[in-house]
């Protein structure tokens, strides 16, 4: 008689920063029958990480992170969640961090893509395989087309096209992933502040009369940078993005279909529906080979 061994899969390691997406990735892995171990960045990760086997680690302790994942038997790692760049003086360093400090400082001299590429290579050099959140939880990816009843108008579609064209160009400079376009005019560009604060800035411009518009106008467009490693820092939206778009009095949100994560998609779609905003996924054209 042949005996088939049902070997338990190795745990998926999740390096969790802020927001709901790390929790949703962990839930997706568990639903697929895979155990999870989370290393949560203290001060960033949500309390929900305590539902899973986990370790809270201050930012700046890569040695503890590597040892925790190895001790849990993790071979594949997902790096996911929202974060702002810490100041070096605010980081608590372990011995491994001291060994890496010069390389880290060099990686900080550039945009987010440069820093995250360095982080991926660091994990790979330690023997881990880095996976994207979308590989573990593909259901989080934005579909093509509208999420609800509301659709972009012809003017909205023209604004979306301008936003996509701009982001494809600006992305080469590792600037940001989002832009607000109103009546064929770019009025806000995401930089270090992130999408939510960029939308808050648009709301302030309207309140101050710097953007003289009648009623709702304009679109938030969000896409990945052209050469960005999709395994880390894939664009993401959620209900807070919808709330920001409402305060900015925009007509809708357009994201790259299949290349943008939607946190709590049902909640996000419902919030947009209540607000009368469209949320739509746009299929990006492939760049030159």
Could you walk me through the main structural features you see in this protein, from its secondary elements to its overall organization?
This is UDP-2,3-diacylglucosamine pyrophosphatase. It holds the Pfam family LpxI_C. Residues 12-140 form the LpxI N-terminal domain. With 289 residues, the protein is of the alpha/beta class. The protein folds into two domains: 12-136, Rossmann fold (3-Layer(aba) Sandwich); 141-282, 3-Layer(aba) Sandwich (Cytidine Deaminase, domain 2), CATH 3.40.140. Helices cover 36% and strands 18% of the residues. Helix 8 (239-247) runs parallel beside helix 9 (265-275). It is globular, with a radius of gyration of 20 Å. Mean pLDDT is 90; it is low at 1-5.
């Amino acid at each position: 008689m042949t005996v088939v061994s049902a070997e338990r899969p190795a745990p998926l390691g999740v390096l969790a920063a802020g927001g709901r997406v790390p929790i949703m990735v962990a839930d997706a892995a568990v639903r697929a029958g895979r155990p999870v171990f989370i290393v949560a960045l203290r001060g960033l990760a949500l309390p929900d990480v305590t539902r899973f086997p986990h370790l809270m680690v201050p930012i700046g302790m890569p040695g503890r992170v590597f040892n925790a994942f190895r001790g849990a038997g993790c071979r594949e790692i997902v790096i996911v969640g929202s974060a702002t760049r810490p100041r070096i003086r605010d980081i608590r360093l372990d011995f491994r961090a001291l060994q890496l400090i010069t390389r880290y400082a060099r990686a900080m001299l550039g945009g987010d893509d440069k820093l995250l590429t360095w982080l991926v290579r660091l994990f790979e050099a330690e023997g881990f395989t880095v996976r994207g959140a979308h590989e573990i939880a593909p259901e989080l990816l934005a579909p093509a087309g509208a999420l609800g009843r509301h659709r972009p108008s012809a003017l909205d579609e023209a604004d979306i096209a301008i936003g996509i064209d701009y982001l494809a160009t600006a992305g080469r400079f590792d600037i940001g992933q989002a832009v607000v376009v109103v009546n064929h005019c770019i009025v806000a560009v995401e930089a270090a502040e992130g999408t939510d604060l960029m939308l808050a800035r648009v709301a302030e411009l309207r309140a101050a009369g710097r953007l003289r518009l009648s009623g709702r106008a304009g679109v938030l467009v969000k896409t990945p940078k052209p050469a960005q490693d999709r395994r880390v820092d894939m664009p993401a939206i959620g209900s807070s993005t919808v709330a920001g778009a409402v305060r900015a009095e925009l007509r809708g949100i357009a994201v790259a279909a299949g290349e943008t994560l939607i946190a709590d998609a049902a909640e996000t779609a419902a919030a947009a529906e209540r607000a009368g905003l469209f949320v739509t996924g746009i299929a990006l054209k492939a760049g030159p080979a």
